[in-house]
Structure formats: structure tokens, C-alpha cells
From TrEMBL:
The lineage of its organism: Bacteria, Bacillati, Actinomycetota, Actinomycetes, Kitasatosporales. SUPFAM superfamilies: Actin-like ATPase domain (SSF53067), Winged helix' DNA-binding domain (SSF46785). Keywords: Kinase, Transferase. This is NBD/HSP70 family sugar kinase. Belongs to the ROK (NagC/XylR) family.
Length: 386
């Protein structure tokens, strides 16, 4: 289906190490690049020559590499050619597919969304293939596809379990590859978002970093030493068992007083519906709480205290340099951010360093971008190292 894919793929292990270092930290002089990678000048020249010839790297004016020494023979720094290849990212929700095209530096250059009227795996793959064909018309140098799905994903290829799509053991990567002819990487949507923020976003350059998402579900990602940490409960709803208030509400999803029961959008809507008989959207509930309506105000206050407790607990045990709060539920901070901050302080030592809490107002295109970044990381860096 697609022609003109990035001509620099595949890369050797040595070429990948050079490409990634420049991609994440560039522009870099050859001297600095060799120092970072522990390479001799000759070895670096051997590795960079094909990358320059293929159009992946380019020499840029020395002024574009701040902090570089100007002593001795001038050396033009190397930079990644961001538009030398493009990547597709898809975020699949219960009723929509959100698609983006990104450059090699993860900048979104196009968006395209489609309603999802079926959960049949083959038909969903057909939708993704049709979207790929549409997006390829304006971006012929497509190098790969990343797909983010809420649920448990195995080997970046098979959706082992997705409660939103009611899937089990769906070989999504193969289904989409067969229809598009492009390499495909599938991952849990939160994991993909964490990778994107670690490389190009709020966690760039940090050793200890946490992403916490609230929305239809609750997501958690931990980065140590600049790398995402996988764990046994990953993608399987850890928040259902994280009790933040043993006297909290009992909802259909999650144990009594769990982070999921208190914080997720479906749980908050359920509590209001059970108490009042009225069905309100999440934004309507936040607006009613802000206006002082007693029941919505109480539910939102409990959610804010749960969030503050959760952030404090994470900070106490992980000691991250920053926690990024993201997802479609972050509007809670606009209405009850003060309560969140007060609760964090209540659960922290008085002399503890302030929690570096950053809130990211995002939409599903950010999640799709995360999937594209994961494709960049796996297909350029190599799956063994990603």
C-alpha cells in the first residue's frame, strides 16, 4: 500500500546508537557525540557517513549546537532531519480511533479521526488500514505505525486483554501489517505515553519520573534511570487495588475506596447517578461542583483528596523528580487543585522537598502521538533496547 518509506531503515546497532543520541540530545558535535558513545573519531565517521548519505542526519551550522567549543578545526554539528521519515500513531478507544502523523522528532503534522462502530478485530484493522491510506497521501515517507490500546499487550504485537474493546489474544500488529505493508508496534496506551514524555516531553533528561493518568481508567508509569520500568501488574488495572480511603465509595469497578473507585470518570459519574438519579457528563459534574452544588462538590472533593493521597504516596516511596498528571480527567485540578495540594502536604514529611507535580491538558491525539513515538523508538532504536 505504502511507497517511499524511510530509506535509512534498517539501521545497524552502531548506527542506531548514533541516531538515537542525536535524535534525543542533538544537535551534537562529532567530538561530543564520540565522547557520549565512547567511540573513536574513526569509528564515529564510519557510522555517521551512511546516516548522512541516506538523509537521516545532516550537518548544521556550529551556532546551532550551544555550548560547543570553537577551538581548533571547525566541526559542523550533526542533527536529525526531522522530515526524513514519518510515523503514524493511533489511539483506539471504545468508540473512536484517533490518528496522527508525526515527524521523526515527534511533532504532529497531521490528524485524522474515525468513529469506531465495531469491535471486530478484522474490521478494526480495516479501519486502521483505511486511515493509513488516507494519511499516506500527504506523507509518502511513512516508516511505521504505532498503536495504543487500553489493556494488556504482549510482545508489542498481541492485545492479550482489553476491557474496553472486549478483546482477548488479538494479533493486532499482524492484522494491520497485512493490510498496510508497514511495520507495526502495539502497546498499552499509558506505556506509550510514558515513552513519549520520557523522550520528548516532561520527563526528558530526568532520572526518576512518574506519569499518572486519570480518565476512563487510571494509569501509572515509572521511569528510573531514564528508562520505563515494566512491572507484573502493568496494564492490568493496578488502581483497583490501591486503597486510598478504606471508607470510600463502592463502585462497580474497583474495591471500596480504591483509586479507581474514587478517581476515574465512570466512577465519578456513577456516584452522582446513584445519589441523584441524574446522568451528567464529567465536565458537567465539575461545573456543578465549582458552582457549589452539594453532591457534586462532595464527590469532587473526595476525588481531589484521593488524588492528593495517591500523589503523596508515590512521592514518599519513589521520590521522583517530577510527576506528570495527564489524561482526560485532569480537569479535576482546575476545580479542586487546592484540595489536591493540601492533601499532598498532609501526607508528606514537613521537611520533604515539594512534589514536582505538572499537569498536562491533553486530548487523545497526545495518546496517539505516544504510540507514534513508541514506533520511532522500537523501529529506529531496535526492539531489544526499547
Amino acid at each position: 500500500m505504502t511507497e517511499g518509506t524511510a530509506g535509512w531503515l534498517p539501521l545497524s546497532a552502531g548506527e542506531r546508537s548514533v541516531a538515537i543520541e542525536v535524535l534525543v540530545h542533538g544537535p551534537l558535535s562529532r567530538t561530543e557525540l564520540a565522547r557520549r558513545l565512547g567511540l573513536s573519531a574513526g569509528s564515529l565517521t564510519r557510522l555517521t557517513k551512511p546516516l548522512i548519505e541516506s538523509g537521516l542526519l545532516v550537518e548544521v551550522p556550529e551556532a546551532d549546537a550551544p555550548g560547543e567549543s570553537r577551538q581548533g578545526r571547525p566541526s559542523q554539528p550533526l542533527e536529525v532531519v526531522a522530515d526524513s521519515g514519518f510515523f503514524l500513531g493511533f489511539k483506539i478507544t471504545e468508540d473512536m480511533v484517533y490518528g496522527v502523523v508525526t515527524s521523526l522528532r515527534s511533532h504532529i503534522v497531521a490528524r485524522y479521526d474515525r468513529p469506531l462502530t465495531t469491535h471486530d478485530p478484522g474490521e478494526v484493522a480495516d479501519v486502521l488500514a483505511e486511515m493509513t491510506a488516507e494519511l499516506a497521501t500527504g506523507h509518502p515517507r511513512l516508516a511505521g505505525i504505532g498503536i495504543g490500546v487500553g489493556g494488556f499487550v504482549q510482545d508489542r504485537a498481541v492485545v492479550g486483554e482489553s476491557p474496553f474493546l472486549l478483546w482477548r489474544d488479538v494479533p493486532l500488529a499482524d492484522l494491520v501489517e497485512q493490510r498496510t505493508g508497514l511495520p507495526v508496534v502495539v502497546e498499552n496506551d499509558v506505556a506509550a505515553l510514558v515513552e513519549a514524555e520520557t523522550w520528548f516531553g516532561a520527563g526528558r533528561g530526568l532520572e526518576r519520573f512518574v506519569v499518572l493518568t486519570i480518565g476512563a481508567g487510571l494509569g501509572y508509569g515509572l521511569v528510573l534511570g531514564g528508562r520505563r520500568v515494566p512491572f507484573a501488574e502493568e496494564d492490568r488495572g493496578f488502581g483497583r487495588h490501591w486503597i486510598v480511603d478504606s471508607n470510600g465509595p463502592l463502585t462497580p469497578d474497583g474495591r471500596r475506596g480504591s483509586a479507581v473507585s474514587l478517581l476515574t470518570i465512570p466512577s465519578i459519574r456513577y456516584q452522582i447517578r446513584a445519589a441523584t438519579g441524574g446522568d451528567h457528563t464529567y465536565d458537567e459534574i465539575l461545573a456543578l461542583a465549582a458552582a457549589g452544588d452539594p453532591m457534586p462538590a462532595r464527590v469532587v472533593d473526595e476525588a481531589a483528596r484521593a488524588l492528593g493521597t495517591l500523589v503523596a504516596q508515590i512521592s514518599n516511596f519513589v521520590m521522583p523528580q517530577k510527576i506528570l498528571l495527564a489524561g482526560e480527567g485532569v480537569g479535576l485540578m482546575d476545580v479542586a487543585g487546592k484540595t489536591v495540594e493540601e492533601t499532598i502536604r498532609e501526607h508528606r514529611h514537613p521537611l520533604a522537598a515539594p512534589v514536582g507535580l505538572e499537569t498536562k491538558v491533553s486530548d487523545f491525539h497526545d495518546w496517539a502521538r505516544g504510540a507514534a513515538v513508541l514506533a520511532i523508538k522500537v523501529l529506529v532504536l531496535g526492539s531489544a533496547e526499547a
